[in-house]
Amino acid sequence: AADVAAQEAQLRTQQPKAGVCPVQWGANGIAFRCLDCEHDSSCVQCADCFFKATHTGHEVAIIRTHGGTCDCGDPASWDPGGFCPDHCATPLRLDGPESLELLPADLR
Fold first, then answer.
1. Most distant CA pair in the chain: distance in Å?
2. What pTM was computed for the model?
3. Which of 20, 29, 14, 41 lies closest to 84 in space, CA to CA?
4. pLDDT reported for residue 34
């Protein structure tokens, strides 16, 4: 078990950060809109992603929501220039059979 944990830690350091933010919230949640980055008015970022991203000079608003999910990392919802450093477009090598090459040989 310790060996698997060590391999997981190694994979996490080698793997570039990618994907969509998993943060969700319920009624009366707070989210951030950026009129320069969003693709429509339903697209938002959680506070953590918003403050890590660059929105200098952008038109932004803090809103209360009825529930939702952070759109950081989703290029269909948000301009990639407004993604935070933790959520970026998925590199091709992580999206397909080539991703198996990232695993240690004994786990393939």
1. 50
2. 0.68
3. 20
4. 98
